[in-house]
Specification:
Largest sheet of chain A: none
Helix content of chain B: 25-40%
Distance between the termini of chain A: 24 Å
Number of strands of chain A: 0
Strand order of the largest sheet of chain B: 12-11-10-13-14-16-15
Shape of chain A: flat
Structural class of chain A: mainly alpha
Distance between the termini of chain B: 28 Å
Largest interface: A-B, 41 and 48 residues
Structural class of chain B: alpha/beta
Oligomer: heterodimer
């Protein structure tokens, strides 16, 4: 998996990206479900959280750096 | 010898940075920044009157550095007075938000995008919002979503929702944090009714919940390769409909009706207008401050003889009404702002310098302080001599009104306080303090006998 190249100086935050996918029309909604279905279900408490989260520590730190 | 320095609020974007040379506003661009600027020029958007007038200079000399070096320098038109969103009214913030969204849509049509979405990129020339951050335009990167969405929510949407739906003034929240209002904070204020409002589920609920569960690098990498411009356009258009539909009822505060319903007789009001008019007519002013402007009656009189007028009042509802009236007239001279003079905007952000204090952003050459002194001295408990000292320290000519202890408004303010709490509040104390700092050119007592007007100039001011 390639590491993303962040061109923007502003961290968009993954929550903002997911919300845009959901609100961006049917095609984007389907893509969002495909990519994020598990996470959205976890957030909505429709699916149990994995005991070993796949998010690497640096990814969490990256997400929290606004 | 020229004076050059980097603008204290411009350092976050590595592709572009603003600096000042002898009062001239300039912007250093990196090589990437230049490529984006050329794309912007080719799109025609640079000639749009909603974007600050900008030209590229032949000389790329810059006193500020960029990580990748400075490849070009731009010069921008100067904004008459810099203001910040925590000094704006609801309608001003909403108009700035709509400008941001409209420019985003216009940029998309030209294969461009805005790399951020902050109200600090908008300034008001009078009541006309202008987008000042030319460095924010960049070429659209394939697969990239609306990077500024989250920032738009925190700095535009949630503050507007706070006031429109919760009847909570947004200004203290934006002054409290220049990053804005997080989704989780706004969500904490919502009620059952708010959950059925447009935009709640995605912008508020889902965003707040997702913020608590950070995503992985894998997810984000996959996302960036899959999306299309149409997703951004759909989201921006939906956001525009949401923002355009927001309304804030002007609160029926005591000052909203003050302009029409006050203690002045028609004759006194006419005498006061004439006094202000004749004082204003003694010069051509570059910047007039009308402190405690209320409905802007005297700011309008001053505007006839001034390049720019700053009209400030602590009552956000009154200032919003004034803004809407002036905006409908297409006024570009008078800038209305929400400011409590007993607690004016301080320096905020990085090193406390990123957003300078109100009083450091420009000095007036004429100050109107009508029906103000008694509020500062009695309602805010500032000693009378201190009030006069502060007004004189602005270094401008001064039109000031002193309501005596017998005035109905002063009586009303004094009645709320312990007896003898303001023994210094007397005309003699006021005049002595004023005469120490200024030359009193003219004074006139209104027919009611309880209000005195003064036109004074600083002792060292050339006349």
């Amino acid at each position: 998996m390639n590491t993303p190249h962040f061109i923007a100086y502003l961290d968009p935050g993954s929550s903002g990206l997911i919300v845009q996918m959901i609100g961006g029309g049917l095609a984007a909604f389907v893509v969002a479900l495909k990519l994020y279905g598990r996470r959205i279900l976890q957030v909505l408490r429709l699916r149990r959280r994995d005991t070993a989260p796949d998010a690497a520590p640096e990814a969490v730190a990256d997400d929290r750096a606004r | 010898m020229s004076v050059a320095y980097g603008e204290s609020g411009s350092f976050r974007d590595p592709a572009s940075r603003v600096f000042v040379v002898d009062g001239d506003i300039r912007r250093a661009l990196s090589r990437e920044g230049v490529a984006d600027f050329v794309a912007l020029s080719d799109s025609g958007l640079l000639d749009d009157p909603r974007v600050i007038a900008t030209e590229r200079l032949d000389d790329a000399h810059s006193p500020v550095e960029l990580p990748d070096g400075v490849a070009a320098v731009l010069r921008h038109e100067r904004v008459p007075f810099v203001s910040y969103p925590y000094e704006w009214t609801f309608s001003m913030l909403r108009d700035a938000a709509l400008l941001q969204l409209d420019l985003t849509l216009a940029a998309l049509d030209s294969g461009l995008m805005l790399k951020d979405a902050t109200p600090y990129n908008v300034q008001f020339v009078g009541t006309r919002p202008v987008f000042i951050d030319v460095g924010s335009f960049e070429r659209l990167h394939a697969g990239e979503l609306w990077v500024g969405y989250r920032q738009f929510c925190m700095q535009y949407l949630f503050p507007l929702l706070l006031q429109a739906h919760k009847k909570v003034a947004f200004q203290p929240w934006l002054r409290g944090s220049i990053e804005g209002v997080p989704a989780s904070d706004y969500r904490g204020l919502t009620s059952l009714r708010d959950r059925f409002r447009r935009g709640y589920l995605t912008h508020v609920f889902l965003q707040a919940r997702l913020d608590r569960h950070p995503g992985s690098v894998r997810e984000r990498a996959a996302l960036k390769t899959e999306v299309a411009t149409s997703v951004i356009r759909a989201n921006v258009k939906k956001m525009r409909r949401l923002v355009a539909g927001l309304r804030s009822e002007v609160p029926a505060g005591e000052w909203v009706r003050y302009g029409a319903d006050n203690s002045y007789t028609p004759a006194d009001a006419a005498t006061k207008d004439e006094f202000v008019r004749s004082a204003v007519a003694t010069n051509r002013w570059s910047l007039v401050w009308d402190l405690g402007c209320n409905n802007g009656r005297h700011a309008r009189i001053a505007a006839a003889q001034a390049a720019h007028v700053l009209a400030v009042d602590a009552d956000a509802g009154t200032v919003d009404l004034l803004y809407r009236e002036l905006r409908a007239e297409g006024d570009t001279t008078i800038l209305p702002l929400v400011v409590n003079l007993a607690d004016p905007s301080p320096g905020l952000g990085w090193r406390g310098c990123e957003r300078p204090p109100l009083l450091d952003r420009g000095r007036p050459d004429l100050v109107l302080a009508l029906a103000l002194v008694h509020h500062l001295a009695i309602a805010s408990n500032v000693p009378l001599a201190e009030v006069v000292d502060w007004l004189a320290s602005l270094g401008a000519a001064l039109v000031v009104e002193f309501p005596t202890r017998d005035d109905p408004m002063v009586q009303s303010l004094l009645a709320r306080k312990r007896r003898d709490l303001h023994p210094d509040y007397h005309r003699a104390v006021f005049e002595r303090a004023l005469a120490q700092r200024c030359d009193i050119q003219r004074q006139e007592t209104l027919g009611s006998g309880t209000r005195v007007l003064y036109f004074a100039t600083p002792k060292d001011m050339p006349r």
